[in-house]
Amino acid sequence: MKLWKKGLLFASAGLLAAGMLSGCGGTKPAASSAPAASAQKANVLKVATNATYVPFEFKTKDGKDYTGYEIDVVRAVAKEMGKEVEFRNIAFDGLIPSLQSKEVDMSASGMTATKERAQKILFAAPFYQTKLAVVTTADSNIHSVQDMLDGQEIAVQVGTTAAYYAQDKGMKTRNFDHSSDIVLELKAGGAKAGILDKPAADYFVATDGKDKFRVVDVPDSKIQYFAFGFNKENKKLQAEVNKAIADLKQKGTLNELHEKWFKTPVPDMPSTAEEALGIK
Fold first, then answer.
1. Is CATH 3.40.80.10 the right assignment for the domain spanning 132-217?
2. Using CA atoms in the order 203, 245, 112, 197, what is the torsion angle rounded to 10 degrees?
3. CB of 177 within 8 A of CB of 158?
4. Rg of the chain in Å (alpha carbons)
5. Which pLDDT tens digit goes with each residue over 208-233?
6. Which of 104, 124, 154, 159 could potentially form a cystine with 228 if both were Cys, beta carbons 3.0 to 4.6 Å apart?
7. What is the CATH number of domain 43-129+226-277?
8. Which residue spans of the chain are classified as CATH 3.40.190.10?
């Protein structure tokens, strides 16, 4: 009986000692996966796009991936920064709100850098130079902007510089969420003309709209620049992307991508959005 009690006493002491050792760090706790998850998250660039804007951003034929000039530039910039890209397809007029709410890190959707938008978000260095153009049917009576002021409906995309231009001119507009909807409307005969950025207009008339549509110049359309957008507070990411774009220019990568999509060399452009817009 005494031997049994003594054994029990030693066993209890042993358990107590083990507990004390454990409490003092004798047994290492399981490693947390939080730092790894945080690092992985930091290595992903969340990019909002409106993938309906040929040839800048649109879905592949099978609908499983994104393609286009701007998509290629985004991927090249991310690679230069050592990051992965996660695209989120949203409506064009939701791009700035998504940046302001910090749901995404960057926007890439054929957005023209303007002083008005620069009050709400930051812009990266321009990656594309553009201006506006009109697309109309080959046999239409529209040969100038003046011919579009007679009250007939002109198709435009909501929230774009084309929409603002038409509004300033007093045009009667038909508003669409996506630039691809403008093209569909023109093909269906629902609108006599639509205002697009010139590269998109040229691309459509040279491909799907060949011999059926033509481009009308907009002489008073100023040269504008496409640029990626960021939250107003995210100057760090803006600087990192600006550096990546500068490096891509120096290496010739940006020119290669421009040649791939537009068959022309990339023009000289301002090194910052602030320079392009004339703001500090």
1. no
2. -10
3. yes
4. 28
5. 899 999 999 999 998 999 999 999 99
6. 124
7. 3.40.190.10
8. 43-129+226-277, 132-217
